[in-house]
Amino acid sequence: MDFIKIEHFKCFEDVEVQINNLTVMAGANGNGKSTTIQALLYLRRTIEHCGEWVEGRYKLNKTNKLNVSLNGAYCLALGNSTAVLNKNYSGNSISIGIQNEREYLHVEYLAEILKSEIWLTPENVESECSKDSPILKQQFYYLNAERLGPRINQSIQFWDYPNAGWQGEFTAQLISMDESYYKIDDDRRFEKTTTNYLTDQLNNWLNFIMPDVKVKVETNKKTLTAQILIENEYTASEPTLATNLGFGISYILPILATGLVAKKGSYFIVENPEAHLHPSAQSAIGRFLAMVAKAGVNVIIETHSDHIINGIQIAVAQKIIEHKNVTINFFSKIKGISQPDVLPIRIKEKGELTDWPKGFFDQTQKDYSLLFNLNK
After folding, report:
1. Which of 133, 158, 165, 330 could form a disulfide with 169 if both were Cys (CB 3.0 to 4.6 A apart)?
2. What's the pLDDT tens digit per position in 15-29?
3. What is the C-alpha to C-alpha distance for residues 258 and 233, in angstroms, rounded to an integer?
4. How many secondary structure helices (H) and strands (E) does the chain include?
5. Domain residue ranges in the chain
6. Which CATH architecture has domain 1-139+263-376?
C-alpha cells in the first residue's frame, strides 16, 4: 500500500491518503479530493523539472533550487504561494511525498509568504526509491475533469510517449497510431475477442459502454491534423463528425484510449470519468477502469458518481479485480477538526463495502425519504 503524504498544503495540515492499485477519491465538494490529486501532480511536476534523467527514468535525490511553477503543467492553476499554504499554519514550508513500507520520496518546499510568488522552491529532498516506482517512470497519464469537447479535428504534435494529453487533446493522434507501432496487451482485450489492435479494442470497449457506437480516425500529414469520425445506428453506416454527436463520446474516448495503452506500473489519473455519460455508461466505465488496474496500471479516480462505484463493486464481484487491490477514500468534514477527514473504505470479495458513512452517496435514499413523507 502506498500513501500520499501532505503537510501544510491548502486544506491539509498533515494527512496520509492511501493509494492502491485502484484508488477512488469520493466525497462532497471542497473536502480535499482535488487537493490530494493536485499534490500528486505537483510532486510529479517537481520531479520532471528538478530531477535527472537516468537510465530511462527520473531521479530526484537532491534539490537544485529551481523554482516549480504552481500553474500550467497538468492543468494546475494553484495561484500563488500564499494561496497554497495552509491557513492554520504559521510557518512557510510545504511537504509533499509518496511512500510505502519499503521506499519513499518527500519534497519540502519553501512558500514565500510576503511576496506571494507563483512558484514554490524545493528546499529539501528525502528519497529512497526503486527504479520501478510509478512516480519516477517516464509514462505518467492524467486526464483533467475539463476535457476537450467535440472538435472537427485535433492537431498532431510531438510527444515523448503515446498519450491522450491532459485534456484529451491528443486522442485522435493516439487512436490513429500505426497498428504495427502499438498492440494492446492480452489482459486488456475485450472478452472473447482476439485482435490486439488499438482501434479494434477501443471499439469493442466503446460498444460495451455505448452500444452500437464505433469510431475511426483519418489523418492529414500535410496539415498535421487528425479527425475522429463516429458511427452509430442513426448515421446509416456513414461516419459523421464528432461535433454532430454531443459531448459524451468525446469525453470517454481519451479514457478508453489511455486505459488501453498505459504502461504497466505507471499512474493513470482521471478526474470525473462520469462526465456527460448516461448512468449505464458510468457503471460500465467503472468496470473498464477496474480492468485497467487489474492489468497492472495504477489507476486513480476522482468521482461524484455512485454509478462509478457500483461498476467497481461489480468488477470485484465478477473477479475482474481483487477486492484487496481497491481503496475508496471518502473525504468529509467533521465538526471540530480543522482539516478534512479521509476514511479508507474497502470492498469485500462479493462487492460489498466495508463502511457506508454518513454523506457517502446517500442522497438518493434521502430524496426518496423526503418524497415519501411529502406524499403521505
Report:
1. 165
2. 999 999 999 999 989
3. 26
4. 8, 18
5. 1-139+263-376, 148-261
6. 3-Layer(aba) Sandwich (3.40)
